[in-house]
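User: Here's a chain of 74 residues. Predict its fold as tokens.
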Amino acid sequence: MRYVYIGLIVAAVMLVLTFKVQNLEMVTVSLLGAGFRLPMSLLLAAVYVLGMFTGGVLFGLIRTWAKGAMRKDR
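Assistant: Prediction complete.
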């Protein structure tokens, strides 16, 4: 079973590296008058990580609100 996991990890790394190599063209990002250029693959990775962070925070906030709503006040 260990070799299956190693194979899956190697396949995932190869997929990410292939994506990185094939998306090296530069894109311009503008926000509130500021603009900067970066590779598309880096932009997509940053948006993905930001989405994971904000999604996790939102899920935790909703869970906290739900627990507070279900708790009986004394």
